[in-house]
């Protein structure tokens, strides 16, 4: 018998209740029943985003929501500021360049997070920038950006703040309206606890003015069209992924039942335990300011984490992630976002210890597990 566990930082494990909801008979998307489901799902997402604005559901992965955040905000030739400190921060640069923006790319190392001081300086040098594009939780390094502090800088200027919150929504509290964030993009397969396939986006009132005036060509991801169809009876412009929306509604109901504060506190505890285990195993963190949805750790000298990850998956049924970009083969990323319990995290740490030992790394037996259990209390 073999059981599989996913401790990848997306896609993540999906609750059985959600899988069963997906398996219910199909309904047509142009029905009152579906419109109500869509509206309730959007309302649930509003709570996770911390906004009164509608959260639009895009049939596409998180990157579709990111692309929507570019094509609806930036006209060709607009200047944007990006702060790439990882694979997904770099995606903003690629999207900006792909759609003809003048991209000012701040110099950050992977593992760092954009600081308010860096944002302020960039805005002083480029007051004409249309938007700063940043990443709340950088999944390639496990670093968290203090969004509230960055928004405190941007909201006093005409430059918008657009954020990839794909691996932070449902993990960290997000207060879009209170902080003054203008655009938030998200995806379904991480803290939102459902399979990949949906993108989410919300837009502040002042950003809507920009969206309306934006001259970029757009069609499938045209937020003006989405807003129109939403206002005309909670519909999407095109055919909806009915089963995924149903899954998302169920997952949001489960999160409400647990209580959002408890969901965030659970992630904080899991992250604390994973960090304690890493320290006990004498493996350093990649991130200077670590996020709570994943823990990215440097591998011991000489261990190829691509091979280690495959070994743990194939032999022990536990899947983690290796590194991306120049960190490929060098780091291990343990996802603990979404549907992960404390007991499952202990299992992940135990298997990591087993894998490391198989690859010749020496440490006090059970040091990681003991530290994690102690951190969990
Ligand atoms: C922070 C972040 N941004 C963007 C993406 C890309 O999302 P998707 O693969 O759903 O398009 C991911 C997914 O790995 C992510 O973690």
Domain count, please report it: 2
Cα-based radius of gyration, to the nearest Å: 21 Å
Work out the strand percent: 5-15%
Which CATH-level-2 architecture of the largest domain? 3-Layer(aba) Sandwich
Verbal overview:
The protein starts with a strand and ends with a helix. The radius of gyration is 21 Å and the shape is globular. It has helices spanning 16-22, 32-49, 62-71, 87-98, 116-125, 147-154, 176-179, 205-213, 223-231, 242-258, 260-280, 305-316, 342-358, 367-376, and strands at 5-6, 56-59, 79-82, 102-105, 131-135, 137-138, 143-144, 160-164, 183-187, 198-203, 294-298, 318-319, 331-335. The chain folds into two domains: 5-10 and 260-376, Aspartate Aminotransferase, domain 1 (Alpha-Beta Complex); 16-256, 3-Layer(aba) Sandwich (Aspartate Aminotransferase, domain 2), CATH 3.40.640. 44% of the residues lie in helices and 14% in strands. With 377 residues, it is of the alpha/beta class. Strands 2-10-9-8-5-3-4 form a seven-stranded mixed β-sheet, sandwiched between helices. α4 (87-98) links the parallel β3 and β4 (102-105). The chain binds pyridoxal-5'-phosphate. The site of pyridoxal-5'-phosphate has 13 residues, from α3 and α4.
Structure, briefly:
It is built from 14 helices and 13 strands.
What topology emerges from the helices and strands here?
Elements: E1 5-6, H1 16-22, H2 32-49, E2 56-59, H3 62-71, E3 79-82, H4 87-98, E4 102-105, H5 116-125, E5 131-135, E6 137-138, E7 143-144, H6 147-154, E8 160-164, H7 176-179, E9 183-187, E10 198-203, H8 205-213, H9 223-231, H10 242-258, H11 260-280, E11 294-298, H12 305-316, E12 318-319, E13 331-335, H13 342-358, H14 367-376
Parallel strand pairs: 1-12, 3-4, 3-5, 5-8, 8-9
Antiparallel strand pairs: 2-10, 6-7, 9-10, 11-13
Helix pairs in contact: 1-10, 2-10, 5-6, 10-11, 11-14, 12-13, 13-14
The protein binds pyridoxal-5'-phosphate.
């Amino acid at each position: 018998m073999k059981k599989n566990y996913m401790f990848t930082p997306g896609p993540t494990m999906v609750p059985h209740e959600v899988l069963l909801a997906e398996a219910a008979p199909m309904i047509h998307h142009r029905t009152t029943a579906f419109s109500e489901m869509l509206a309730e799902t959007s309302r649930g997402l509003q709570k996770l985003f911390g906004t009164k604005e509608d959260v639009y559901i895009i049939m596409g992965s998180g990157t579709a929501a990111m692309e929507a955040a570019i094509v609806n905000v930036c006209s060709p030739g607009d200047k944007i500021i990006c702060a790439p400190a990882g694979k997904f921060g770099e995606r903003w640069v690629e999207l900006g360049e792909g759609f003809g923006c003048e991209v000012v790319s701040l110099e950050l190392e992977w593992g760092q997070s954009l600081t308010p001081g860096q944002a302020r300086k960039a805005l002083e040098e480029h007051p004409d920038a249309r938007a700063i594009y940043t990443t709340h939780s950088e999944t390639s390094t496990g670093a968290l950006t203090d969004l509230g502090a960055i928004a405190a800088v941007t909201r006093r200027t005409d430059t918008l703040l657009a954020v990839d919150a794909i691996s932070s929504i449902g993990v960290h509290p997000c207060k879009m309206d209170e902080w003054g964030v203008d655009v938030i993009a998200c995806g379904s397969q991480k803290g939102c606890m459902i399979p990949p396939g949906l993108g989410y986006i919300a837009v502040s009132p002042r950003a809507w003015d920009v969206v309306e005036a934006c001259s970029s060509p757009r069609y499938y991801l045209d937020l003006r069209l989405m807003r129109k169809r939403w206002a005309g009876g909670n519909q999407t412009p095109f055919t909806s992924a009915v089963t995924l929306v149903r899954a998302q509604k169920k997952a949001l109901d489960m999160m409400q039942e647990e209580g959002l504060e408890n969901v965030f506190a659970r992630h904080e505890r899991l992250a604390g335990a994973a960090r304690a285990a890493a320290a006990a195993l004498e493996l350093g963190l990649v991130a200077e300011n670590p996020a709570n949805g994943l823990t990215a750790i440097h591998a011991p000298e000489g261990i190829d984490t691509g091979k280690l990850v495959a070994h743990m998956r194939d032999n022990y049924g536990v899947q983690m992630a290796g590194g991306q970009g120049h960190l490929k083969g060098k780091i291990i990323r343990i996802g603990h976002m979404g549907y992960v319990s404390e007991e499952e995290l202990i299992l992940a740490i135990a298997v990591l210890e087993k894998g490391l030992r198989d690859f010749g790394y020496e440490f006090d037996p059970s040091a990681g597990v003991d530290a994690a259990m102690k951190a969990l209390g």
